[in-house]
Amino acid sequence: MKRPLQVTLLVLSGLGLLHASLFTDLSLRFVKEGMRPMLVASGALLLVLGVAEAWSHQKPAGEDGHDHEDADADADRHVDAHGHDHSTVPRIAWLLFLPALSLLFYAPPALGAYTAAREAPKAVTEQRYFDPLPATSPVPLTLTQFTSRVQQDHKRDIGGRSVRMTGFVTPDKGADGWYLTRIIFTCCAADAQSVKVRIHGASALPANTWVTVTGTWHPGGTLGTSSAPAALDARTVKKVAKPVNAYTDALPLF
Question: At what angle do helices 36-56 and 3-18 cross, to 10 degrees?
């Protein structure tokens, strides 16, 4: 890979990172919000390195009339004792252009129902004490809060209470109901986990549709123990806009 192409790759990578993290919200498909400043800094650094590399090789011809570009080209060649030229980068290195171009022109789609349908729900953290539920009705909860209440709150305060949660639709073919889902990033898409609540009594909208669901716990097993299903009898299902930072288990959208 010749020096001009190396410079081009640095500049494209820098522009791609800045496009994804500074000028758009594309980076939130792959990393948590807190990682954004580091992506911006990395993009800026790659851009500066690319420009500096290009500038450093803009040399005029020498006094002897010879073009220094020829000397630079010779310097780039590394020939070993056996006469083998090691200055040529393996062809696979050209694949480095693909992620750089994808960030600029076609970013991979966000994680959604396809991913969630193929993995087990995230295990909720063990919790022994729960604050009393507020008197408001319906009670706004995250999917994790609802699951914890259903399976761990021995006071069973969630029984009979109307609750409201927001997530996206994950169909469950061949079964009763569908899943209200959130995908949660600990750091980035590589460690993504899903939390799901099965919805009964309402027809499923298309996969990945963001909705706010209001309803009551769907009875089963023993409330307050692990035998109780994280499930809801839906009373209303309302389409909502996808949140900008979709990879958190946030409270319902109103």
Answer: 150
Summarize pLDDT for 232-251 with one digit per residue, the tens.
999 999 999 998 878 888 88
What are the structure tokens assigned to 95, written together? 């694949």
- Residue with the larger pLDDT of the pair 142 and 75: 142
Question: Under DSSP, is residue 125 helix (H, G, I), strand (E, B) or coil?
Answer: coil
Distance CA(82)–CA(96), nearest Å, equals 30
Strands 178-184 and 193-200 turn out to be: antiparallel
Neighbour-count burial of 140, counting CB atoms closer than 10 A to its CB (0-12 exposed, 13-18 middle, 19+ buried): middle
Side-chain half-sphere of 71: how many Cα atoms within 13 Å?
Answer: 11
| Residue 44: its H or E element | helix 36-56
Strands 231-239 and 178-184: unpaired
CA angle, 111 as apex, 105 and 117 as ends, to 5°?
145
Is 189 exposed, middle or buried, given 0-12, 13-18 or 19+ CB atoms closer than 10 A? middle
Residue pLDDT, tens place only, 35-56: 778 878 887 888 888 888 778 7
